[in-house]
Amino acid sequence: MKNVSHETLDQLKEFQEQVLRWNQRINLIGRTTTSAIAERHIQDSLQLYALAPSAARWCDMGSGAGFPGLVVAICAKQTPTEFILIEADRRKAAFLSHISRMFDLNTRVIAERIERVDKLNADVVSARALAPLGMLLDYGHRHAKPDATFLFPKGASYRAELDAVRDDWRFSVEPIQSKTSDDSVILKIKDLARA
């Protein structure tokens, strides 16, 4: 993984505390995963940061509690990358905006459904625990530059999800073993085009 500074580690710890605090009022993460937030959510998100190319614009769809969007934005704070976080739930979008202001992050939070957002021309598109791969490709393709990289963490059924979209899409894919779960991968997709 890319090295992170002590300041970044401190901010990630504070971010974790904010997630837990806000989670008492609005359901940001499942109650069963709060005790393992560092491993289950933050470390999982850090993997995407390590796999992403340098980007001018990163779009995180269905950002929810900021995994991976805010985690990556905190890690990339010293870069010129703009992070666009799309979240339809206005309460969660308020949380994303709060954290963005708190850490002075280069983010834009869009409180809207993904399919209603104007095209974003992103270099990197990510989504974690949002939808089946077919929907992610539909949503992401609309917001991506032609040479964009797509990063989608997926579970043990990822092969079936890939098979289900082969008739509709052409792409190159690299399934990368997750460092946080033996049953999971990160799909790194390039050269996405409709079949």
Radius of gyration: 16 Å
Main sheet record: 7 strands, mixed
Class of secondary structure makeup: alpha/beta
Strand order, main sheet: write it out: 3-2-1-4-5-7-6
Q: Which residues form runs of ≥5 with pLDDT under 50?
A: none
Mean pLDDT: 93
What is the CATH C-level name? Alpha Beta
CATH topology: Rossmann fold
Specify the CATH architecture: 3-Layer(aba) Sandwich
User: Percentage of helical residues?
Assistant: 25-40%
Count of DSSP H/I helices: 6
Quick one: CATH superfamily? Vaccinia Virus protein VP39
Overall 3D form? globular
Distance from first to last alpha carbon? 34 Å
Number of extended strands: 7
Tell me the β content: 25-35%
Number of domains: 1
**What's the helix-strand series?**
HHEHEHEEHEHEE
Describe the 3D structure.
The chain has 195 residues and is an alpha/beta fold. The chain has one domain (6-194): Vaccinia Virus protein VP39 (Rossmann fold, 3-Layer(aba) Sandwich). It is 37% helix and 25% strand. The protein is built from six helices and seven strands; from the N terminus they run ααβαβαββαβαββ. It has helices at residues 6-23, 37-51, 69-75, 90-102, 133-143, 158-165; strands at 57-61, 82-86, 107-110, 122-126, 144-154, 169-177, 185-194. The protein is globular. It starts with 5 loop residues before the first helix and ends with a strand. S-adenosyl-L-methionine binds at residues 62, 67, 114-115, 128.
Give the gist of this structure.
About 35% of the residues lie in helices and about 25% in strands.
